[in-house]
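Design a sequence for this backbone.
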C-alpha cells in the first residue's frame, strides 16, 4: 500500500486518494465472481460528498431540486442554475436526437451512425452556468444497457450546446449489474459543441467488457469475443473545450480524453489516474477471457501472456486523432495510463509542468506537422515499467523543445524488458533531460536511443542524467552534452562528456 498522493503543480496542490493494491477488494461489477479478487495498482476515488442543508446560491442563479428539473434545464439557453446538493441516480434516458453528419478520416459521421445520438443526458442548451457543488450524478450500467449497441452512437452525456460551464460536479458510473452482463456506452462524455468548460469536477469511470487484460483481446473489433470499451471524454469537432482542476479516476478499458478534429483544448491543474495489473495475477483466474484462450494474448498475434510484467487496464491518457491543433496541457498529472500523452497533431502543442507516472506503454509521444510549434517545458516522468519517450509514430518533430526531468520509479517497482528512456528523433530540436532521481536507476534500463527508425539531425541534447545515449547511424550534425556515456554511431556530431557532481 502506498501513501496519499499529492502532486504540486506550480503552487496548485492536486490531491488524490491513496494508491492501493486491491488484494482485499472485490467488485463484482469489474470481474467474474468465480475468480479471486483482482490485484491492481489504483487510487481510490474520493468519498461521495455528504449532502447538507446549508449551501450557498449565488446571485442570479435559480435553484433546482430534482433530476427531472435538471433534464429540462440542460435543453435551454442562457441560464444560471444551482442544483441542490445530493446524490441523483439516473433511471431513464433522454430522447435520442439527430444532428448533421460530419466528415472525418473514418468517413461521414464517424460519431453517429446516420447522425443519430443516444444518451442518458443530452445537454442541447447553450451559454449556461451549472453550479453542481455538492451534487453527485450517477449513470448506472443498468441504464446504459438500455441504449443502442451500435458503434459511435451512445454516450452517457452529449454536450451538444456551446459555451456551457459545469462547476464542482461529481459524476460517477455505478456498476449495479454483475460483470459481464451489462453493456456500457462508448464514452461517459462526448463534447460536440464549442467552448464548454468544466471546473473542479470529479469523474469516476467504470465498466468495460472485457476488463483486466489491456488489449490482449482486441480494441476495435470483436474477433476474440465481445468487446465493449468505455472512455471518459471524447472531444469531437468541438473547439475551445477546457478542463480546469478536474480529477478523473479511470477504471475501464478506453481512453481518458481523446480528441478528434479539434482546434483549441486546455487541460489545466488536472489529475488523471488509471489502473495497472501484474500479468502474473491473470493466471489465478478460473473463468473468463484469458481462460477461454488458454492464457494467450490474441490481438496482433497469439502468444502466451508474459509473467512478471505490468499492464495498463486503461487506454491512453490524452490522445489525438485526425486534425487536432492548439492543445495546451498545464500543471497536470497523468498516471497509470497506457500511452500517457499521445498527441500527434496538425498544429501547436504546449505541455507545461506535466507529470507522467507509471505509464503502461510510454509516457510522451508528441509531434506535429511541419511548421507547428511543440514545446514541452518543465515536464517530468519515470521509467518504472515502460519508456519515457516514444517519438516514432507521428511526423518527424522539427524545431521542437522537449524539456523533461527524469524521476525515480516508485519504491518496490521492478523494471520490465521495456523500461528505458525510450526513443527520440527530430530535426532542429532541443532535448533537455534533467535528473530528478533520488536513487540509481537499473543499468539495464538507463539508456536513451537517439535516431533509429527515424532520424535525428541538426539537433541538441543536454543530458544531465547518468543515462547512456545511443546515437544511431542516422544521427547527424547534433550537439551532445551528456553526464552519462555516449555511444556515437552517427556522423558529424559534437559530443562533450560532462562530469557529474
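Sequence:
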Amino acid at each position: 500500500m502506498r501513501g496519499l498522493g499529492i502532486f504540486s503543480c506550480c503552487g496548485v496542490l492536486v490531491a488524490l486518494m491513496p494508491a492501493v493494491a486491491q488484494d482485499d477488494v472485490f467488485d463484482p461489477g469489474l470481474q467474474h465472481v468465480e475468480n479471486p479478487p483482482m490485484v491492481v495498482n489504483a487510487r481510490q476515488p474520493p468519498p461521495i460528498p455528504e449532502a447538507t442543508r446549508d449551501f450557498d446560491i449565488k446571485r442570479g442563479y435559480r435553484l433546482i431540486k430534482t433530476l427531472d428539473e435538471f433534464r429540462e434545464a440542460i435543453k435551454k439557453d442562457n441560464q444560471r442554475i444551482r442544483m441542490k446538493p445530493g446524490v441523483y441516480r439516473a433511471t431513464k434516458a433522454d430522447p435520442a436526437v439527430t444532428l448533421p453528419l460530419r466528415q472525418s478520416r473514418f468517413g461521414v459521421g464517424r460519431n453517429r451512425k446516420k447522425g443519430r445520438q443516444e444518451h442518458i443526458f443530452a445537454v442541447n442548451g447553450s451559454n449556461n452556468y451549472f453550479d453542481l457543488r455538492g451534487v453527485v450524478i450517477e449513470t448506472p450500467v443498468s441504464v446504459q444497457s438500455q441504449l443502442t449497441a451500435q458503434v459511435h452512437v451512445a454516450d452517457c452525456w452529449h454536450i451538444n450546446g456551446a459555451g456551457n460551464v459545469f462547476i464542482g460536479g461529481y459524476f460517477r458510473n455505478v456498476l449495479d449489474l454483475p460483470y459481464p452482463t451489462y453493456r456500457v456506452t462508448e464514452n461517459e462524455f462526448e463534447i460536440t459543441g464549442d467552448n464548454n468548460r468544466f471546473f473542479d469536477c470529479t469523474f469516476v469511470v467504470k465498466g468495460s467488457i472485457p476488463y483486466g487484460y489491456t488489449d490482449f483481446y482486441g480494441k476495435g473489433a470483436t474477433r476474440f469475443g465481445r468487446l465493449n470499451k468505455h472512455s471518459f471524454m471524447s472531444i469531437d469537432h468541438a473547439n475551445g473545450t477546457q478542463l480546469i482542476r478536474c480529477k478523473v479516476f479511470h477504471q475501464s478499458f478506453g481512453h481518458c480524453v481523446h480528441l478528434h478534429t479539434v482546434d483549441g483544448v486546455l487541460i489545466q491543474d488536472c489529475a488523471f489516474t488509471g489502473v495497472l495489473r501484474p500479468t502474473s495475477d491473470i493466471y489465478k483466474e478460473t473463468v473468463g477471457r484469458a481462460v477461454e484462450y488458454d492464457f494467450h494474448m490474441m490481438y496482433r498475434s497469439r502468444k502466451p501472456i508474459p509473467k512478471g510484467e505490468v499492464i495498463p487496464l486503461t487506454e491512453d491518457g490524452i490522445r489525438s486523432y485526425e486534425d487536432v491543433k492548439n492543445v495546451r496541457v498545464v500543471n497536470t498529472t497523468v498516471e497509470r495510463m497506457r500511452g500517457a500523452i499521445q498527441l500527434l497533431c496538425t498544429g501547436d502543442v504546449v505541455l507545461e509542468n506535466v507529470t507522467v507516472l507509471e505509464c503502461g506503454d510510454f509516457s510522451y509521444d508528441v509531434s506535429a506537422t511541419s511548421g507547428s510549434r511543440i514545446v514541452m517545458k518543465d515536464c517530468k516522468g519515470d521509467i518504472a515499467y515502460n519508456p519515457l519517450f516514444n517519438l516514432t509514430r507521428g511526423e518527424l518533430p522539427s524545431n521542437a523543445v522537449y524539456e523533461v526531468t527524469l524521476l525515480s520509479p516508485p519504491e518496490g517497482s521492478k523494471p520490465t524488458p521495456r523500461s528505458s528512456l525510450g526513443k527520440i528523433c527530430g530535426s532542429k530540436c532541443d532535448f533537455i533531460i534533467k535528473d530528478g532521481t533520488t536513487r540509481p536507476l537499473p543499468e539495464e534500463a538507463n539508456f536513451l536511443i537517439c535516431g533509429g527508425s527515424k532520424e535525428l539531425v541538426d539537433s541538441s541534447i543536454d543530458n544531465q542524467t547518468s543515462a547512456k545515449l545511443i546515437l544511431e547511424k542516422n544521427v547527424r550534425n547534433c550537439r551532445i552534452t551528456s553526464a552519462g556515456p555516449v555511444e556515437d554511431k552517427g556522423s558529424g556530431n559534437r559530443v562533450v562528456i560532462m562530469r557529474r557532481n
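The helical segments are 67-73, 141-144, 289-292.
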